[in-house]
Amino acid sequence: DIIPQPLLDQYLSMTDPARAQTVDTEIAKHCAYSLPGVALTLGRQNWHCLKDTYETLASDVQWKVRRTLAFSIHELAVILGDQLTAADLVPIFNGFLKDLDEVRIGVLKHLYDFLKLLHTDKRREYLYQLQEFVVTDNSRNWRFRYELAEQLILILELYNPNDVYDYLRHIALTLCSDKVSEVRWISFRLVVAILQKFYANNANALGLNFINELVVRFRHCSKWVGRQAFAFICQVG
Fold it and tell me: What keyword terms does UniProt attach to this protein (predicted)?
């Protein structure tokens, strides 16, 4: 009753890979772009009408199609709610995490928006995977690492101090030693945000350990760029 059945059938048929190859190679990309709008119109109670189509598009051979879905998966998660997201979107999300950098950047740019919609236990499963974002197909793709640091500043609020210390601290220290100055600058802000997280949650021992690590790693660094990093961290703080 929401959308005329012939119209919905026509939309679903356009995602057929065989048709896309013979009619228009861009058609699958357009379908992927409009899918959140179709899902919103249908409502989560009718998600079953789109589920197979979404999975077909998510496994499309064209990376541009997968990239389009990766950029909007957080919006779809809001539409579907936590239960459907955990059941149907998390597996797709996990696939995008292992995809090409052109696709991974889509989930990375909205990583906080997606993770905050998950239950705490499901969210914790991604702690270890976050460090995989440091490695890219092309090491010169510094904007990827910059985006990671920006997202981590937001993501800090989703995890407790112990998780931040055990997992996110290592990533922050790695990014602080990046070859690109833009990445280092945003990473200094991340380090200060981590320290603020510790002390705001009365995790003073973790904060002191982290400060001592920063002193050893940067203040007493044999290279001037390390000592400069320590000065900038102090300035940001």
Answer: Repeat
- What's the rounded Cα separation, in Å, for the pair 211 and 217? 10
pLDDT tens digits, one per residue of 160-208: 999 999 999 999 999 999 999 999 999 999 999 999 999 999 999 999 9
d(CA 171, CA 183): 12
As a residue count, the chain comes to: 237
The amino acid sitting at 183 is V
Q: Name the residue among 57, 54, 50, 52 with its Cα closest to residue 19.
A: 57
CB 58 within 8 A of CB 69: yes
Tokens (6 digits) for 174: 């790695």
Contacting residues for 68 by C-beta, under 8 A, at least 6 apart:
29, 32, 33, 106
Cβ neighbours for 199, distance < 8 A, ≥ 6 positions apart: 207
Spatial CA neighbour of 175 closest among 211, 215, 130: 130
